[in-house]
Design goal:
Length: 413
């Protein structure tokens, strides 16, 4: 009798355990609601021929419309670019000579109302004494005369352009010290251990400020503001088209990355390539530059992603640029022939999309054209080549009442 009682007790215990486990499972089960049990109605897109054709028609209209607008904006920009790489070697000595037309690129109105040929320019190279702080040095100055055949509405920007200069090289990109640029007097050991190497200190062990390859290779050609040689108003006080070259040429807030240095003058030396501007080092007459206020330097330190790039040098936001013949004087210091590069300057107006760039419009045209081709293909395929009657979407499984009721039945059971 005892064994039977023990077996019965075991069955009762097992039943109690099963009941407790089932109770625990029910306790953890989510509430039986449409949201928690994922039975809410959902919208199912049925790609009917009419819907496909409509979607591609709308996309084609949007992309082609934006492409036409962006192309229009690009063609409203007026610009003139002149390559002066070989000015010192090929320009006239003592007199102006024609500049080869293949070195000139221009985009102006085609209405026939131009006052001069933009593809005609002259250049000359002369020797001049250039003032650097408390001393002068003789330098090659390239004089370039060019035509602006129509009035340019402000804003007018002046860029320099470099070809084949790889600012995106991985070692070049890292060759600076952020704390030093911010104005901190970073000690020599920290500078020597930083990515500024090999331009961290000079042979005497003095710290280079600013250190690194990026600062040392800064573009150092200088450009005058364009001077109008044949002004329409002969009573004008000045024929110079003044352009600001240290205000408004960089992004707002970028100056927060830079500061006036806290080094003593005897602790630091200029980068090697700055020797012409700081022949005697940093002195009271030629103090180190205040990087927070030097926007041309800040522009240079914004590294370009491609080997061919523009950087803004100066601009005029208030006055239109009259048509006529202009002259720009260029102190040529930056030798691009050392690395098989080229250099140019660009004078341009801007639109709401910036300077002239036809590629956004072309890309929109390509995408819009693809949508239009697919749209035409679907129209011909669905309605002319292989027309067939569309099935009734009400017979789809998710539209059946039994499919919606099944989860409730399963939950009830």
């Amino acid at each position: 009798m005892a064994p039977r009682l023990r077996r019965g007790a075991a069955r009762d215990a097992a039943a109690q355990d099963d009941h407790a486990e089932e109770t625990e499972t029910l306790k953890n089960r989510p509430p039986n609601t449409a949201f928690r049990q994922q039975r809410m109605r959902a919208w199912q897109c049925v790609l009917t021929p009419k819907l496909i054709v409509t979607v591609f028609s709308i996309l084609a209209a949007i992309y082609l419309g934006f492409g036409a607008y962006l192309t229009y904006l690009a063609h409203t920009v007026r610009d003139l670019s002149i390559d002066y790489t070989d000015c010192v070697r090929d320009a006239g000595k003592g007199k102006f000579e024609p500049l080869p037309s293949n070195l000139i690129k221009a985009h102006f109105s085609t209405s026939g109302n131009l006052t001069a040929d933009p593809y005609k320019a002259d250049w000359q190279v002369v020797k001049r004494e250039i003032l650097y702080g408390n001393y002068t040095a003789e330098r090659n100055v390239c004089l370039v005369r060019f035509n602006i055949p129509e009035d340019l509405k402000h804003t007018v920007n002046f860029y320099y352009y470099l070809e084949n200069f790889y600012q995106n090289h991985r070692r070049y990109v890292a060759s600076f010290n952020a704390k030093q640029l911010l104005g901190d007097a970073v000690d020599g050991a920290t500078i020597n251990a930083s990515t500024c190497d090999p331009l961290a200190h000079n042979d005497q062990g003095k710290i280079i400020y600013p250190c690194g390859v990026v600062a040392n290779s800064m573009f150092n050609d200088t450009f005058s503001s364009p001077v109008l040689l044949n002004p329409r108003n002969t009573n004008a006080n000045s024929s110079e088209y003044l352009m600001a070259n240290n205000t408004g040429i960089t992004w707002s807030g970028l100056e927060d990355l830079y500061g006036k240095t806290k080094y003593n003058y005897d602790q630091i030396v200029p980068p090697p390539n700055w020797h012409e501007a700081y022949k005697y080092g940093y002195t009271n007459d030629t103090p180190p530059p205040n990087l927070r206020e030097w926007q041309a330097f800040q522009n240079w330190m914004m590294l370009a992603a491609s080997p061919n790039f523009y950087k803004l040098y100066q601009r005029n936001d208030t006055a239109d640029m009259q048509s006529g013949t202009y002259q720009v004087d260029i102190v040529s210091n930056f030798d691009t022939t050392l690395y098989n590069g080229r250099k140019s300057f660009l004078i341009t107006t801007i639109s709401s999309m910036g300077s002239r760039n036809i590629w956004p419009g072309i890309i929109f045209f390509i995408v819009g054209g693809i949508c239009l081709i697919l749209d035409i293909y679907f129209i011909l395929s669905f309605f002319l080549w292989k027309p067939r009657k569309l099935g009734d979407p009400s017979y789809l499984s998710w539209n059946q009442p039994s499919a919606a009721a099944a989860p409730n039945t399963a939950a009830a059971s």
